Amino acid sequence: MMMSFTQYPPMPRRRSCHGLFLLPLLLLLLQTAELSQAQVLNFYGLSCPGAETTVTAAVSAAVRKDPSLAPALLRLMFHDCFVQGCDGSILLDQTAGMAAGPVEKAAGPNQSVRGYEVIDAAKAAVEAICPGVVSCADIVALAARDAVVLVQS
To answer: What is the model's pTM?
Structure first.
């Protein structure tokens, strides 16, 4: 005799508390996203008002000349952030006074990273309008953001 699944009594429902923990976590994540977005948009509005538009102009000019630089800039940011956070350390060149070992730029996975010249041009342009204010890490982040927006539009 063959039994169907409908002959078995229904399983009792277990109450779960997961929803009670997930809701505050979700709210915290949303709040953190809002705070981080507020910190990123126009961060240099007072200390260097032209910083973002200057970086955008440098990235736009470079991507117009070579559209393959857009994904390269995003990749450059990824490789910078991958090792100990987004600190601009991928931009460092090896010098005689540095500690032993290669810098991030010379590491195996980073040797095919491109777009350094775009970051250098953007940094030079920003330094011309407000020296010593905008970090290299922020230039990398702004350039990656602008590159993605340019490709999207």
So the answer is: 0.70
| Structural element, H or E, at residue 135 | none
Give catalytic residue positions: 79
Residue of 121, 146, 153, 149 lying closest to 56 (CA atoms):
146
Q: What is the pLDDT of residue 82?
A: 83
Q: pLDDT tens-digit profile of 21-40? A: 566 666 666 655 544 444 45
Question: What's the distance, CA 17 to chain centroid?
Answer: 35
Q: How many angstroms separate the Cα of 35 from the Cα of each of 24, 29, 38, 69, 145?
A: 16, 10, 5, 30, 18
CB 119 within 8 A of CB 91: yes
DSSP state of 9: P
pLDDT attached to residue 95 = 75
Residue 103's closest CA among 114, 81, 82, 95?
95
DSSP class of residue 60 equals H
